[in-house]
């Protein structure tokens, strides 16, 4: 993490400085689902992130080593964003947030089905998902 942005040495506070806003975690979520995204792909999400917020969050995530960008193989005007190992390591946190949300909110059927699989053997599910995400790291 960039030390200049730290408010304190509390690990929760330091972590939240990097990914603690709504948009950053949604970007990470999208990359965990799609493995790679273009700027335009993020703009198409249901949450309708504005372009200035998206650009800011992508830069923060890249500066902090959560994501990386590379040239798009089909277009010089586009770049592909992918998770780094540091970003992939957020998967258990994303699972726990989803399990918490399931407890208190009505989730879509597809999300419930995923969480049902998670609950069968959470450790195995996370290990498999992390290994699948690692295949996308260059």
Supply the key terms.
Arc Repressor Mutant, subunit A; globular; 8 helices; 3-stranded antiparallel beta sheet; mainly alpha; 138 residues
Provide an overview of this structure.
This protein has 138 residues and is mainly alpha-helical. It has a single domain (3-134), classed as Arc Repressor Mutant, subunit A (Orthogonal Bundle). It is 60% helix and 9% strand. The protein contains eight helices and three strands, in the order ααβααββαααα. Strands 1-3-2 form a three-stranded antiparallel sheet. Strand 2 (67-71) and strand 3 (79-83) form a beta hairpin. Helix 7 (109-120) crosses helix 8. The longest helix has 14 residues, at 91-104. The mean pLDDT is 91.
Task: Give the topology.
Blueprint: H1 11-19, H2 22-34, E1 36-37, H3 39-43, H4 51-63, E2 67-71, E3 79-83, H5 85-88, H6 91-104, H7 109-120, H8 122-134
Helix pairs in contact: 7-8
What's the β-strand tally? Answer: 3
Overall 3D shape = globular
What is the count of DSSP helices, taking H or I runs of 4+ residues?
8
Please name the CATH topology: Arc Repressor Mutant, subunit A
CATH class: Mainly Alpha
In short:
With 138 residues, this protein is mainly alpha-helical. The chain contains 8 helices and 3 strands, in the order ααβααββαααα.
């Amino acid at each position: 993490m960039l030390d200049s942005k730290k408010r304190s040495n509390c690990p929760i506070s330091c972590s939240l400085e990097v990914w603690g806003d709504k948009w950053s975690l949604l970007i990470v979520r999208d990359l965990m689902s799609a493995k790679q995204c273009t700027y335009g792909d993020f703009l198409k999400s249901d949450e309708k992130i504005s372009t200035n917020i998206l650009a800011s969050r992508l830069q923060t995530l890249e500066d902090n080593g959560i994501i990386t960008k590379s040239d798009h193989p089909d277009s010089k005007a586009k770049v592909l964003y992918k998770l780094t190992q540091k970003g992939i390591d957020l998967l258990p946190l994303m699972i726990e947030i989803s399990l918490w949300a399931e407890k208190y909110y009505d989730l879509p059927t597809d999300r419930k089905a995923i969480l049902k699989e998670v609950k069968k053997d959470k450790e195995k599910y996370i290990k498999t998902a992390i290994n699948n995400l690692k295949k996308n790291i260059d």
